[in-house]
Hints:
Blueprint: H1 2-19, H2 21-33, E1 48-51, E2 55-58, E3 89-96, H3 98-101, E4 104-107, E5 110-112, H4 117-128, E6 133-140, H5 146-157, E7 164-168, H6 188-197, H7 201-218, H8 234-250, E8 254-258, H9 267-270, H10 277-280, H11 286-307, E9 311-312, H12 314-319, H13 337-354, H14 364-376
Parallel strand pairs: 3-6, 3-7, 7-8, 8-9
Antiparallel strand pairs: 1-2, 4-5
Amino acid sequence: MALSTAILLGGLEVFVRATGLEQIVAGRVSARLYPAPTKGGEGLFTTRVFDPVLSWRLRPNGWLPGRIGHINSLGFVGKEIEWTKPEGTTRILTLGDSVTYGLWACGHGRFCRHNPYPSALEALLWQRSSSDAFEVIDAGVYGYSSLQGLRYYRTYLESLNADVVTAMFGWNDHGILQGFEGRELRTPVLGAVANGATHLASYRTMTGLTALALSQIASKQRARPAGYKPRVDLDDFEYNLTELVREVRSRGAQVLLITEPAGPDSELMRTGKAMPTWSLNGLKDYEALIAIHQRYNEAMRRVARLSGAPLVDADAEFERRDKSRLFDPYDLVHPNEAGHALLAELIYARLVRQGWIAIPGAGPAQRESEPARSVDGRL
Length: 379
């Protein structure tokens, strides 16, 4: 019985791979959920394509809204890179959501993207450090939760052989649940089986067919649930981050966790002239949203403490500054260019503090203070 089942499954796998059925199904799901842009009609959701493991990924060779940023041929926002790490290069992989992706609302229905923190960090590394070469890969994908970040790294990104992996998640984890989010299986044997299945074309095809069927059902239902429930609860959020730390270390890489800062309440949001983020999550006001967000940042700090992973507490650092300079009034989730510059400085300072990069001729005290001074003159 076991032998005949194995033969049947093996035959199915060969058939799916030989016919390209996986790509056909994925294409149909993408066409339904994320239609390709028409000429001159690039938009936020046209940058997605369906993925059976992650739900979606960035569309290779796509453009961000207003053509203010390009997605390269490998599906990363930013410049073209080689998958194989160049010899002698220190490679940093930045995992995250739309903050890492780099867009922020800079007007009514208008997006900006100027030197997001992965790009700003790479520039700092080249300017200030003694190593011969640096490469920072922006692996941020808007809408991603910690679950998607973990699976993205585990399924696709491990082979990039990054020396350092940074992880910044939270906003989407506590975003309102719509539909089915999924979770990691915590039993080691079942988890290994589930992870192995994601590499089978037959499994990925069945996942695509299921997504196609569910999308037809979802289109007939109301768009927003009646009450608030997070996409990823706190316990699962901590588990996902802990697993990510373990996965990165198992590849011989260093990991750096980052809390997500929140912008100040703004008059535009209070008066309805800008979309209030809390209403998108089914919450009553700014204070309710921030209270939940702080619980997820505290969970990030807890994972760092328990795992021994270094932490950049960007949330705490932003609180020490005038946040109205670091966020535009239309957006309390995504920092503006000044906010991204500060994020890059904070990450750079932590990399130096850990000894993962070196500044020529700088002692420990100078290394600790120099990056923060260059942003706003304070530690």
